[in-house]
Queue: 4 jobs
Job 1
Amino acid sequence: MSDDQKMITKQTDLVLQLLNLQRHDWLNHVQVLMSYLKLGRPERAEEYLRRVTELTFQEGMISRIQFPQLAVFLLSFHALHNELRLDVEMEGPIDFSTIDIDRESVYRFLTGLVFAVQEHLDSSAPDAASMLISFSQTEEALVIRFDLDGMLTASGEAIVAKMVEQQSAACMTEWIHTEEEWLLETRFLYRM
């Protein structure tokens, strides 16, 4: 089998894996709704349906950012990695095709940070860690906020600090890393 055929086979297998996981997630949602209805709890079913609808709305916003590489990473991470749950929030529509920004720097920084956090999670925590990544825009920058529900090891903190220091396209506006909270906010300034 040629290298091209191997790559196509690998990509096809990955797409099928993602589709199966997505189908499984939707079946779980339907089962939860059915359970609430059978228990005579329509208010809980309605609340759950609102959360699922909001999640679907956020996924739709992610898929329309006009940055396929980043969209695929954000939409598929949970299906491919179990150590860290990744939630994404778009505070309004973001269209990378209309903003003058170093997209590759954004991608490298975001994925590098997520993988560094995943690799250096403090395993003594009783619950699985999750990270909320929030995107917003100002007139001069794309703002990305990372809010970790979990803690990093000391070596992980050092790696993240080095990543932030070396990122020339972004500036850190806030970084809180205490025993109670871990939050990092960065701004990627638009090129003028």
Job 2
Amino acid sequence: MQLPEQPVAGQPDPTIHDNARRFLAAINDIEKPTSYYDPTELPAVGDMPPVPQPGQPPMSQWATDASGVIKAVSVASLPIGGALWLVGQVDPLTLGIIFGSPAVAALAVARLVAKVKDANQATQPVVQNYYGTVHHDERTVTSTTRGVIANTRNHH
């Protein structure tokens, strides 16, 4: 006995033809252009109001730095808030470790940065070995450039 949803024996399955037809239609759609470039010139000045651009809004360098610090502090406050939530469930020694370890880590990093900065600023000894006749010229050359068409004069 043959069920109605089964194809007739010896005949191709119609769902295979439907799937193949949809697959070929999808391939043909790929070859169609997916964008359009409008070649008309844009007006240099128009009557449209300015549109806010995506990203960080324009602001001074100080404001940008301050907003970065505020973001960092707000992210750093999350563990503290979580620790305060756990106050009733954690003993005081563990809370002391939770609150004290970021401060200790910050102090250690600050001292490391200070040491590296001091090491980079220390004057390095200059060792120059000369063999034979040496002429050492200590003249200083200053240069001034003035005018619409650059005219450079070097003075000894």
Job 3
Amino acid sequence: MSSSRYRTLSRRVNELRKNLLPRTFKPTGLYTNRVHEHTRAFRVLAHAEFESYIEDRAVEVIQRAHSTWDATGRIRPCLLSLMSHKEATYSIPDKLSEVSDSSKKYPSLKGRIEASTRHYSTFIRTRNHGIKEKNLLSILLPLGITVDEIDSTWLEVTENWATARGKVAHSSAKMQVQIDPKIELQTVSKILDGFKGIDMILDKK
């Protein structure tokens, strides 16, 4: 079953489809400038929803894992994976008194887990900017999602679409190729379906 956050994403994309795209598509593929403007807006806003979803979901997953460990001592796969991705290494201290939750040089296990969770969440919230391949891998791999669990075709579709979105968002409409709303909806639906698969995988981490 998909998460509450994914269901919110799905509803939001459906709302954008109803508000911005034609109710029916023309076999000729010929549309007014108004339709093309709305289709460009659909692309930009759908991208924002996808980006917000994956950031929220990733933070939700790692914070849930941290809470589980803190309450029960049980470590979920995503938290174990995140700890293994932590770049900093800590040498063995000379004295037991040098180990503490707040020590930057020799933090305890609790301190290291809290620092890793905090660092990852901060990275997601402040340094992630998009859903291109590099963005998604930076979010998903530290949580223990493996290469085999990521659909490479979906990733390529998402990469190409996100790149095209950048051109729409940062250039004049006069310089852009008109977007076919039917094809745009099909592409966004594929990306949405791919995120559903990722969502279900994250639930197991």
Job 4
Amino acid sequence: MTEQEVRRYLRKMSEQDSQTAFRDFYDMTYDRLFRIAFYYTHHEEWSQEIVLDVFMKLWEHRKQLLEITNIEDYCFILVKNASLNYIEKEERRPTLSTETLHGHSDQAVSPEDTLISEELFSRYVKALDRLPERCREVFIRIREEKQTYAQVAEELGISTKTVDAQLQKATIRLKEILL
């Protein structure tokens, strides 16, 4: 995803009310925004709902999107805030306890640690987007979705050796990008 591509879609959305451009923008950014929401919520259904709500807001405010200097950071912040608001709303429900949502951690987390963690996660998400599509897909399935090499190989129609090679390539590229 390049800044030029994003700007082209935003311009079409804003000036022509193009639903096709919006769909292309959605297809291009959905996975990244979903990963951000999932990072905060740890619930797939919540994350899907959050990202869809964010896209609805983006469509509703499409006329103002061209004024935003960094749409990538803007979307990240929208998803982060929506995720935190969603978690807060779910915590108020009597059927779910705070321990269920956040685990059994009694450790206090400083604001600095939280900020550093969020910044690192943001860099990680951006680095993932720079990987070739197949590398990114294999890496996410193995490392984030905890699928086995055999599962990934079968679903993608490749050998387990190819899965291993793609994972190694992704890991090396991520280290280069992040360091």
